[in-house]
Request: fold
Amino acid sequence: MSEKTGLQVSFVTITEDHLGQRIDNFLITHLKGVPKSAVYRILRKGEVRVNKKRIKPVYKLQLDDIVRIPPIQIAEREEFVPKNLDVVTKLEEAILFEDKYLIVINKPSGMAVHGGSGLSYGLIEALRVLRPDERSLELVHRLDRDTSGCLLISKRRSVLTSLHEQLREKTMEKNYWALVDGQWDSKTKNVTEGLRKNTLQSGERVVRVDNVEGKPSHTRFKVLERFAECSLVQASPVTGRTHQIRVHTQCQGHAIACDDKYGNQAFDAAMRKVGLGRLFLHAHDLSFYHPKNETTMRVEAPLDKALANCIKTLRAAKP
Reply:
């Protein structure tokens, strides 16, 4: 994709990365920081042209289309930068794999994947600051704010489409490590309770088991290590429901350590005594088919100090 930019008319030549994309979605992604209302206004007024012709918002881009974009004030990227620049800088060190098509990053616990709900920035906004020349950085999937580990980001729309297809077809494998209360029964290898998402008056999202109206959900489990009062398990979600692993462990009577929404207070207190101060849920490894290299990739994210030290302490306490 080539373009001329600035506070002037710009022209973008469409490559295969944006082939078939709706013009409104293309502009929303391309014009980072511009409100959607402004995008639809310039479309409605006919200020956006494709091959010198007016088009509707549903127009699907074709190879070598020339898109005329009128002058429009784009919010400065610096607006998304947190006051503590160290947070953004540390993301550079958290990148596990990167090529010209995608990034796999070890997302830190406590960082939301995107801004919103009172947050001025999230991981994707911070990455756009780190990679200002990458105009098409998009999240392939999400992790809860307090969950750490492998997060996949695409740099090309065609790559995003392919990876989303892998998620739909369930050919992408994601394995999480979770420290849970009590002794997990090795015979419990599959949890398939339906899950229903509820939004409280405060706006908080809470997920409950509901096998009548809930969405079908499936998580595979395997015990990795046992300790006196808890178990380290591998959780592999087959479906991708909100808070799926957290609720599937809870409904089996084995809440995840330091889960402030679905946890066991007595267990959490015991875990804090061994130095754990965060949710022990970590996206440990990710396997997927690289759509451009045509190879199967597996990327592993090391535990952060908080989780690694917790395991070390629990192992030392073993009889």
